[in-house]
């Protein structure tokens, strides 16, 4: 069960349409990222290349970008998170570069340690 503060509940429940839209965006993005990772192995090693390829293939981006086009692009963070989920949770389309694999493992452990320490040092009261 996810425990949210009163403030979090106000934000969460005030925008259910936004929540559903985000879920739909994540599902659609996941399908597109899987297709790209399957078709182009080199994209498995570099999030910037993956994001650029995503924009080129899915958003039909040209090199003449104006502000309205940039605003309409899929979020790089969403693309990265979906790639991360596909590789970490499904264990599919893993990086082909061993150094990238090792680096990601180290970063993951560092984030876990940092999060654990931050929680221990700053406990959060859970409201129900």
Give short descriptive properties of this protein:
128 residues; mainly alpha
Brief sketch in words of this structure:
This protein is mainly α. 69% of the residues lie in helices and 0% in strands.
What can you see in these coordinates?
This protein is mostly helical. The protein has one domain (6-113). Helices cover 69% and strands 0% of the residues. The chain has six helices and no strands. The chain has helices spanning 6-14, 16-39, 47-58, 67-72, 76-88, 98-121. Helix 2 packs across helix 3, helix 2 (16-39) crosses helix 5 (76-88) and helix 3 crosses helix 5 (76-88).
Integer tally of domains:
1
Point out poorly predicted stretches: none
User: Structural class per helix/strand content?
Assistant: mainly alpha
What number is the mean pLDDT? 80
Overall strand count:
0
Tell me about the largest β-sheet: none
Indicate the overall shape: globular
- Distance from N terminus to C terminus (CA atoms, Å) equals 11 Å
| Assembly state (oligomeric) | single chain
- Radius of gyration (CA) equals 18 Å
Helicity level: 55-70%
Give helix and strand order, one letter per element, not per position: HHHHHH
- Tally of contiguous helical segments: 6
Relative strand content: under 5%
